[in-house]
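Work Package 3 (structural annotation) set out to generate three-dimensional models for the target panel prioritized at the project kickoff. During this period the team completed the workflow that converts sequence records into discrete structure tokens, so that structures can be stored uniformly alongside our sequence database. As a representative example, we reproduce one entry of 447 residues exactly as it appears in the project archive.
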Amino acid sequence: MYTHKTKEFDLSTFANSDNNQSSIDIQGDNSKCLTQKITTYLRWIGSALITLSAISFMLQGYDEILPAYRYWVGLGLTLLLCGGGLICAYLFHETKGARIFFGLGAAFLPVQVTQVSAMIYGHWHGKQALQPEYSWLQFMDVSPTVIALDLAITGLLLFLVSYASFSILARKHLKTLLIASAIGNMILMLPIRDDSLVPFIIAGLFIYLRHIEQHLHNDRSMRLKEGLAARALIYLPLLIITGRSMLHPTSWILALVVSAMIVVHCIYDIKRYTSSANIIYLNQWLGTFAAISGWFIILSQFETIYDKQFGLFLPVAVILFALSSQVEYHARQYRSISSWLTLILTFGALLDQQILAPIITIAAGILLTLAGIKNHEKTPLLIGNLCVTGGFMFYWEYVANLYASAPWISSIALGLAVILLASYIENKENKILSKSRYYFDQIKNWN
């Protein structure tokens, strides 16, 4: 009995100890999760404070500070951030803080580059240089010696900080990221402010960076937070060039390029970055608005915008129809609106007796009909048939004139056609009826 009780006591003791150990582990895990949340919030707050402080310094201007000194203040901030990264990496042996510090340091580097570019541009063009209205963005009257020194320091710092940042963020693609960052910053350094040339530079840089970014996206590791940060860093020079160009007198070419960039990002690329329905939906409408605005930017360059040229607004329908195959929401509504808009514009052009109106109407009708069949939608199909019919009816006047000039020839041709049609219908009656029933039954189930 005694032995039996002892064994029972031992088993219950072990059970209680296991329960206590489990409760301790759960408390430890909860404490660890709470600590991680707190440190994450602290890192976000610290990053926001640093970024907002730097922006505040640049925006406030401080007219009493010379342009060269503004560069040195920014340089000191960049070095301070890199110092914080080294402390986290080698003193605290903590990588998250190091990644944040070096990422912020790499993000501030293009600001240093654009300041040096402004110094070179101001010295190169002198009083003829285009300067923004804001004094804190003007870097005039800087000595060539200081410019050369700043250029050398920026180049050295650009290599060292970019190497350290991309090494800690995405070492696997270090070479690709360094080359992309170097190309972007070298273009940012160019002392060019011409409103006709800069848009093409921006477009070329955007195409190149987008190609690189798509290549990096294929690697799953680059879809993590560190990879996304590295991919975002290579886009900063492009964003700065675009924003800087907006401060000068802009051309319609620049506005068109910016609209195209917005369309590509909001309609095509946004799906790679997020699966949030709200974000995709918002970007879809922003991209649609940018696409339509791009056409009106082109249209504003022609005097015919004030004329009754219905065909000039037909590309709006084409844009909506093209976007319908790429958007995530309301694709059918896009095609329906495009179809109705096409019908109104083409029939308006027919009534206005425009030369190419019937050809455009027939072509648009055929395309809408094919699209309706492909997507199993009634609206494009019916409107497409109406457009084809309306386009051919436009030539009814020529048919009537032809009949009036040679009625006997026209009557013979019409009689032959009617007889042949009757023979064909009689020979293919069953096939025609079965195909017609199948066709109408299918249409009933379409949207």
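The mean pLDDT is 80.
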